[in-house]
Amino acid sequence: MELPTLQDLNLAVTLPSMGLALWACVVLAVGLFLPERRRHWNLVLSLGGIVALFLYNLTLFDLPADRQSAFLGMYRADNFTAFVNLIALVTAFFGVLMAYEYLKRTHIDRGEYYPLLLISTSGAMLMGASGDLAVLFVALELLSIPLYIMSGLRRPNAASEESALKYFLLGAFSSAFLVYGVALVYGAAGSTDLSEIFHRVNAGLILDQGLLLAGAGLMLVGLGFKVAAVPFHMWTPDVYQGAPTAVTGYMSVGAKLGGFAGLLRVFIVALPAVSGAGDATGWQDTIALIAALTMILGNVVAIAQRDVKRMLGYSSIAHAGYILMGAAAAGSPDVRDFAVSASLFYLLAYAFTNLGAFAVTVAIEKDDATNPQLDDFNGLSKTRPVLALAMALFMLSLTGIPPTAGVVGKFFLFQAAVNAGMVWLALIGVITSVVSAFYYLRIVVNMYLREGPGEAQAQRSFLGVAVGLAAVGTFVLGVAPVLFLDLAQRAVLVALGG
Amino acid sequence: MDFALVVAIPFVLGISVYFLRDRLRPVQQGLLLTAGMALLFVFLLAQLPRVTEQGALEFVAPWMPQIGLTFALYVDGLGLLFGLLVTGIGSAVMLYTGCYMDDARQAGRFFALMLAFTGSMLAVVLAGNVVVLFIAWELTSVMSFLLIGFKGADDEARKGALQSLMITGGGGLALFVGLLLLGNAAGTMQLGEILSNGEALRQHPWYGAFTGLILLGCFSKSAQFPLHFWLPQAMNAPTPASAFLHSATMVKAGVYLLARLYPALGDTALWNAALSTVGLATMLVGAVLALRQRDLKGILAYTTISQLGALVALIGQPESAGLKAAAVGIVAHALYKGALFLIAGAVDHTTGTRNINELGGIGRQMRGLAAATAIAGLSMAGVPPLLGFVAKETLLETVIQQPLALAVVTVSAALTVTAALRLFWDVFMGAPRTRLPQPEHVPHDRHHPFGDDAFDYSCCHDLPPLMLASPGTLATLSVIAGVALAPLMAPLVSAAIGKQVSLYLFPPSGVNLALVLSGVALALGIGVFAVRRVWLKWSIPVPVSGVQVYDGTIRAVESVGDVLLKMQSGRIRYYLAVILFSVLVLLATAVPNIRIDLPTPAVQLTTAAHVLEAILLVLALAATLASILFERHLVAALALGIAGYAIGGMFLLEPAPDVALVQFLVETLATVLIIIILARTSQDERRRAMARLWGQTRRGSGARPCRVHRHGRGSRHLCPRRREQPAHTGRYRRMAPGECASAGWRQRRGRGDSHRLSRHGHPD
User: Fold this and answer.
1) d(CA A262, CA B28)
2) With contact defined as beta carbons under 8 Å apart, do A158 and A150 qualify?
3) Chain B contacts of A168, Cβ < 8 Å?
4) Closest chain A CA to residue B206
5) Are B304 and B289 contacting, i.e. CB atoms less than 8 angstroms apart?
6) Quick one: how far is CA A342 from the chain centroid?
7) What integer is the mean pLDDT of A412-424?
8) What is the rounded CA–CA span in Å between residue B745 and residue A137?
9) Which residues on A lie below 8 Å from B566 (Cβ)?
10) Kind and range of the H or E run holding B73
11) Distance of alpha carbon B356 from alpha carbon B354, whole angstroms
12) How far is CA B556 from the centre of its chain?
């Protein structure tokens, strides 16, 4: 067997994720030597790296076919990867920006936050890029382990420690299912390469259909845990509540992004032909059912929450359900491409919106780091009108009311579900959206129609930038989604070779 | 094209007035905006002949070309009718608002919202694409919400604002999916193509689904029974907003959409039955409930509901028989109800109350206002020759063949007459009343929220001419339109419903049943009014009010949430079990498909390797079990190591020496690491940590870990661990080596207290 040359590895296209991991090491090394008053270099370096890679990543759309894979097919550099990278870098950007002042004023300004966040982001990017189940697993752990640590950043605070440990134990448990699923799929198909699995399944060369299905099911468990789908969601509110708010904000998007990128990659590229009834795929009904349960549970339970982070935790479960609706729709061959781009677009819309909502939550959190309650939003429109306006925009977006990103995203997802013939799922989506209006709008009511303590809180400049950018993103995606929609539409998932 | 500008101009005007609010007085702002709206009105009016001749005008601009979505406008007579309504009533309201508002900054903010609403509403009625329509539709709901909450409000107003947004916004989401399905069934999102596709759509298997969803959206927006209750709750909005949104325009969006989609979806059994049932029920319920109201705006709100019901019922008439009456009714209602709302606001503004029991005889001082009220009230009561009479006549003629509908319409018309009389007579005529003592808990500023300095309340006098101009003009238009039917109303109505109609004040063929019934309604209404002393004491039993149903639904959803919350126990043991159980269920669906020929289960211990393998297997299992069962962590860690080594040994026998080697290495490393960590933590600490992690429960809607509680330090002792680290107030910092933990706690407690105090100083 001939050894691959360096050129065959095609390293340049892997730069977004690999480069970010390397840059994380640089940030870590520099951070070690930074004195207290130069801590801002952590921020500058992290943001610089993220922005540079973001720009570079824009050149990675529509690569010629021969440059679309690296490491001999283990890394895929197609438009899907580029779009996932784009969302991941946006997420990381906000994650860094909203944490800087927060970490300082709540006295957990630890330098390791930044490299951990960057490494986790590179894991999320790698999940979208994985062309091989082994890479998928490594990427999953790369995504998760930094998150476990970041959840516990506020040690020795018991809530934060508990959050980290719970996340770690349950996460490890779920990862084990993923590995076992990978093993079963390998046992059935004789390969861990996604495209190879696809071709073997297609050609009927698999050892056993049931083994493949069982493997797919177990992988679904592992990935479902990451995206917080019912019934693998239970860690979410506990972990979200205990972790430092900035971490929760990053986690609520980053982990979900990685999970969905991996889920779509595996199920659309490798397993679309696993037979089911009619021309649908075998796993479609399962994912549709999970999506329905997730939407219902997330939205209904969120109503009872008073703690903002817990509420946003359940809300993030609910949104996982909406995106799963897209994944389920992608199981029908003729809506596949549309459903994939709908899911990606929704992830981007969700990223801007949810990060914005968390940035506002970070802004109203007091210096003693007590968790914000719904009542803490009272009268915000008087004390900080711009912040309140932005939060209102985010809440409308999460509900799915124009003129926001959320409604455009939901439009595509519902459209995909309807096109795939799953009208019932779209209906559940609508009904649960109406339910969700109740708890999202309660925040708007608190901000605009209730009297608050009346004292203006301190302005925080970096956080203000984060909120502003997120608001602009949410609005622009809602009014003129053309640019990103175009990119999302080009992200087509297919198996290599033929 | 020009129509895109029509939609854009209000937004531009709104933004400019917002930024000019420090430079211009409210009156100036109002005049500026009136001019803008009047220009739009004139422009739209000028398009009427063009549309009548050429049919619908379409305007398409690319929006999301990737999925074939366009920003499209579709301008036909119906759209123009509503566009004229929005800009016409809008001009009057803007002029009035300029005088109504005292504070320039507040006025600027208010105008900005009103203009944003105007733009959205114009986009609704001119939209040529169902997606554009939906987006604009929801925007109007949001603007309505912001306007209802404009004054900043007490609990009730807050609840009302949230309710109105929940009902209209939620109904909008139903509409969303309905339109999506409709678009899918029609194969296009363009309104023009959908409308020309009616035959196919009515046969479509999804017809019931999308029609039902769309009707739900329309009914919620147009306050149809049993979703009507949000509209009276919305009356906390400043009166100009009520006049504009909650009477003349926004609530008619539902009626608009029904009329708009009539060619595509209308005139089926489902459509007609749903619309006429709901519409007539709403008409009656609104008219009856209006009787109970003491608040001027409450009376107006319920009569508006009644009128909206009539319009919906008309669109549910077979073979588009009701469209003519609906078009006339829309115009007539907008004119008189707009005027009456503005008058109610002026009365409130001048006297400081809207309670009809506290008012009386103010017509002596306010002759102009009384005259305007009289005219608008006559139109509302349906007295010739006003437009309201024509509307009522056409309505009665439409349903003349249906006894039940005829009865409902006549009774509702009679009660509307009563309401109109109360609005005029009990407020402007009769003996002056003294102001009732205000209950303590009603905040003073609820009645005149914009300050006391605009008018001298001690002696009511007539409004400034500029302010009186708006209701005066609207009332006068009721007369003019009623008299000049042929030159004014007929072309408008003909264009709106797309066929030539003739309107007449009195039936050309002499007295007919409709005219008789109209007279009966008038007489009945006056009779009911005359004996109002009797029935005002009655309480009309309402078995279940919409608000109760709404609250009940919310409670039900919440209690389902509570049940689901019980499952969120906080115990990791339980979480693991749920995951495991779900995995088993998932696998159970896959197992029946497994056809692999498993080797016969007979144990083959023929070779030494097999024997060894069996021993290692047993060893691994036993060690795993031991690691679970042994209490001592060190033993458990070692047992885990043994299990790992046993598996490594099995690899060795496979033979896979490389894998085995890695396994041995990792296993050694892991065990050593675990032991090091164990050595660095005390047994006691570990036990407490275990107790926390595995034995903790969470309950109830709070569902929070016990140390993150809201009530200060009180329940701190519930937390078994780390009493020295109160998470809820804690500033977390590493303790200096010599620092005593309890000292640190005391310090932090001090901070916690002061923090609590500062919160206490500002109760909610």
Assistant:
1) 60
2) no
3) none
4) A423
5) no
6) 14
7) 89
8) 44
9) none
10) strand B69-75
11) 6
12) 19
**What six digits make up the tokens of B45?**
């009016």
d(CA B604, CA B110): 87
**Separation between Cα atoms, residue A8 and residue B86, nearest integer Å:** 66
> Which residues pair with residue A439 across a beta bridge?
none
Which residues in A lie closer than 8 A to residue B161 (C-beta atoms)? Answer: 445, 449
Q: CA B734 from chain center: how many Å?
A: 49
The span from the CA of B363 to the CA of B417, in Å, is: 20
Look at residues B726, B65, B732 and name the one whose alpha carbon lies nearest to residue A103. B732
pLDDT above 80: residue B592: no
At A186, phi and psi to the nearest 5? -60, -40
**Prediction ipTM score:** 0.86
The amino acid that residue B259 corresponds to is A
Interface test with A, best of B11, B64, B133 (most A CBs within 10 A): B64
Looking at the complex, does the CB of residue A367 fall below 8 Å from at least one CB of chain B? yes
DSSP state of B295: B
Taking the C-alpha atoms of residue B124 and residue B7, their distance in angstroms, rounded to an integer, is 9
Contact B149 A445 (CB under 8 A): yes
* pLDDT, position B646: 93
Q: Give A474→chain B minimum CA distance, Å.
A: 15
CB A316 within 8 A of CB A329: no
Three-state DSSP at B703 gives coil
pLDDT given at position A455 = 64
Give residue A253's pLDDT.
95
Per-residue pLDDT tens digits for B120-145? 999 899 888 888 888 888 888 888 88
pLDDT tens column, A345-361 = 999 999 999 999 999 99
Q: How high does pLDDT run on average in chain B?
A: 77
DSSP B424-491: HHHHHSS---PPPPPPTTS-GGGTSTT-S-SS-SSS--PPPHHHHHHHHHHHHHHHHHHH-IIIIIHH
Nearest to A221 by CA among A299, A140, A118, A156: A140
Provide the number of CB pairs (under 8 Å) joining chain A to chain B: 259
The 3-state DSSP composition of chain B as helix, strand, coil percent (nearest 5) reads 70, 5, 25
Amino acid making up residue B358: E
So what's the pLDDT on residue B1?
57
Measured between CB atoms, which of A214, A304, A429 is closest to B558? A304
User: How far is the C-alpha of A374 from the C-alpha of B742, rounded, in Å?
Assistant: 32
Task: List the single residue in B157, B206, B575 with the smallest CB-CB distance to A234.
Answer: B575
Radius of gyration in angstroms for the set of CA atoms belonging to chain A, rounded to a whole number: 21
Token duo for residue A475: 């609005």
What does the radius of gyration of chain B's CA atoms come to, in whole angstroms?
Answer: 36
Question: Strands, DSSP E only, in B130-200?
Answer: none
- Close Cβ partners of B598 (under 8 Å, ≥ 6 residues apart): none
Q: Does residue A152 sit at the B interface (CB-CB below 8 Å)?
A: no
- Name the minimum distance, in Å, from the CA of B505 to any CA of chain A: 44
* Dist. CA A253–CA A146, nearest whole Å: 14
Helix (H, G, I), strand (E, B) or coil at B322: coil
From the candidates B142, B144, B173, which should be mutated to test the interface with A, based on the most A CB atoms within 10 A?
B173
Given an 8 Å threshold on Cβ–Cβ distance, is A489 in contact with B67?
A: yes
Query: Which of the two residues, B320 and B171, has the higher pLDDT score?
Result: B171
Residue count (chain B): 764
Q: What is the DSSP-derived secondary structure letter of residue A402?
A: S
- Amino acid residing at B597: D
* DSSP structure class, residue B190: B
Q: Can you give the pLDDT at residue B462?
A: 65
Tokens of A75: 């890394």
Average pLDDT over every residue of A8-19: 88
Segment 160-189 of chain B within 8 Å of chain A by CB: 161-162, 165-166, 169-170, 172-174, 176-177, 180-181, 184
- What does the DSSP 8-state code read for residue B631? S
